[in-house]
Design goal:
The protein is of the alpha/beta class. The longest helix has 15 residues. It is globular and about 65 Å long. It contains twelve helices and seven strands. Helix 1 packs across helix 2, helix 7 crosses helix 8 and helix 10 runs parallel beside helix 11. It binds S-adenosylmethionine. The site of S-adenosylmethionine has 21 residues, from helix 2 and strand 2.
Amino acid sequence: MDTWQHTTVLLNEAVAALIGDSITRPDPTYVDATFGRGGHSRLLLSKLPPQGRLVAFDKDPEAIAEAARIADPRFSIRHEGFRQLGDLPSASVAGVLLDLGVSSPQIDNPARGFSFRGDGPLDMRMDTTRGQSVADWLATAEAGQIAEVIREYGEERFAVQIAKAVVARRQERGHLSTTAELAQLVAGAVKTREPGQDPATRTFQALRIFINAELEELQQALEATLDILEPQGRLVVISFHSLEDRIVKQFIAANSREVFDRRAPFAPPRAMKLKALDRIKPSPAEVAANPRSRSAIMRVAERTGVAV
Ligand SMILES: C[S@@+](CC[C@H](N)C(=O)[O-])C[C@H]1O[C@@H](n2cnc3c(N)ncnc32)[C@H](O)[C@@H]1O
């Protein structure tokens, strides 16, 4: 048993959105693209018919270790980023769930380097078996690149000041290697603090999104769902900040429109690929029980039945 626990957000709502009232097909395949600690996967498995399948993905080796405890022949786990969703066969999937961002074990365990609370190595990789840590990247990145990442992914007003402080510190005392060192440096560079928010919040969010290529992977995974979902297949995405939610909202909107070809004004419009179904937020009771759910927004869409 893992020391670090994750409380699943919108557990019943997400599974209901994926499967509707009940599963009528004898052999559907579902995808949990963000296994985490398997909250959604386990509930989905409890509702899956004997010939059904659940394919899960996660980048994190600790999530993969947890998934290995599920001894169910209908279940399989892939240690891959969800940008690989497109490897699944076309029109083969009845529902895809993306519960984005980090799990509580990733945030709570200081050894993973995601949090400015508690000291640990400045890592922040979801997949600790490959790629560059935040410390490695900050050791060589130019001030302009650092400022751009912090501004774009953290929407931080003091991005330039923080980037300059990182470079100055590197020149004076060597590169940053711990979360506490970065948090302290940011606190010195951020002049006005938002009430109730640690000055390092935005910078840590930005570096995490960048080092894990979170938004690029999300965009690629969403595009892949258009291919792998079968007609009437469901797309369910839970996001936790506005940068993610904007991508999901725009993706659903862009694919829910009938497209007219201006060069062929009398031709029928190309059919839309998705139908937006729902936008759901956690209930006040869920937020009270699990404050980390407070920023969650779940969007649900259905693949249309028309071949395009
Ligand atoms: C919010 S947690 C999911 C929690 C899960 N639904 C549960 O109930 O336990 C997000 C998980 O997605 C994983 N993850 C985030 N981005 C990923 C990506 N691009 N590809 C694969 N896994 C990813 C993280 O490692 C983390 O374990």
